[in-house]
Design goal:
mainly alpha, two-stranded antiparallel ribbon, 2 strands, 8% strand, disordered N terminus
Length: 118
Amino acid sequence: MPSSIHASLCDMASSPRLTKPTIAVLEALIASSTQSPPWGLSICRDADLGPGTVYPILDRLAERGWVKSWDETSPHPGRPARRYYELTGAGRLQATEALAARREQRSRLGIGLAGGTA
């Protein structure tokens, strides 16, 4: 297998770095339902992060196969079409497991999920 293909396959299976912003985005995605999937700016609002932070995270999650996205197809007068995001089945499982492992590790150390206090 050529090394570039192998590297791409490894990237898809690897977990993203669980930074505070990535955790916030994953939690917003996990909290959403398939009946009303979140769109980009709603994820920004729910994660309390700007679009310059959220969209690159969503792109990285999509590259790893954790997230799928699609454009709004219903009429949307007066605003641009929304881009909806949803965790894939594997992405939901991996995100849930990664957050649980981080929570457990940080609990053992006496630190909250997102980090210590300032």
